[in-house]
């Protein structure tokens, strides 16, 4: 009697397990696609200034090439299932890049055109007695910092205390509902309407033609307050009620609970809303043209009523672009681009300062 023989059945390998692309290959494919795209646009842009390079279009074409490359290579080396997964990932990444293209395009345009005049003279000279080339925007920089700083000093306490009332004390009563309604209405007010309102009020008391730095700060505060209120209100609402109840259970009064528990817990979000409000108004031009005016001199007193006009960076950009120097129009355009780049740098620095403040005052946890 012979022993039964066993046969080994060889199962053909599944297509899913035939292979995988090396780790990090999507990033390498993305880098290669971007190199190819920018090389194509560089050849097409040969002989032209660097500022004429269409960075947004190059990024878009690079992402399209990345989608094609990663799908084809994954289909060859892996399975259709892996290729479909990588295709969806590439499409989502491309959608993110497309959403960022306007920002990239604006930054590239402003930086490439504004670096030409980012010199010490631009930050130390004003436009007083300057015709044609030269001059700077120190008067506009100081004017922007003073007017925006006064607007923040006015708006932040009012907006923050309003949001505290709506969340902690309002409880949906008629007053809180009315405040919420008017805040929503103020959010959609055109900026020039705020400037006209402040100008008309000051005209009643000081006469027509009045221009003061504080007028511009008040006009900007009309635009800032609703942004601060809405942002701070949402941040206060997401603070867990358990924290408030624990504080009350220890006998801490409500006002001290708000100061010691609620505000420190939501300080990061509140700071972000304040920074968004500042970024919302720091580039406004129309209300400042009406309330602050235009000048070539350095004016540091925001409360001077006699010849109290102050220059700000948005108005400086508008004035240099719309009314260039007849003898040197290119110099005016360079100053306008440099002022726009300076405005972007100021906003970036304010956001970094805001993040630092929120991190410093945020409640410390055991993981830190």
UniProtKB/TrEMBL annotation:
Q: Name one GO cellular component term.
A: plasma membrane
Enumerate the spans annotated as ABC transmembrane type-1 domain: 141-354
Major location category of this protein = membrane
Identify the stretch annotated as signal peptide in this record. Answer: none
Q: Which InterPro entries match?
A: MetI-like (IPR000515), MetI-like_sf (IPR035906), Phosphate_PstA (IPR005672), Phosphate_transprt_permease (IPR051408)
What UniProt keywords apply to this chain's record, in alphabetical order? Cell membrane, Membrane, Phosphate transport, Transmembrane, Transmembrane helix, Transport
Which BP terms from GO are recorded?
phosphate ion transmembrane transport
**One example GO MF annotation:** phosphate transmembrane transporter activity
Give membrane topology per the record. Answer: Multi-pass membrane protein
Superkingdom assignment: Bacteria
Report the protein's function.
Answer: Part of the binding-protein-dependent transport system for phosphate; probably responsible for the translocation of the substrate across the membrane.
Annotated family: Belongs to the binding-protein-dependent transport system permease family. CysTW subfamily.
Official protein name in the record: Phosphate transport system permease protein PstA
Q: Which organism is it from?
A: Microbacterium sorbitolivorans
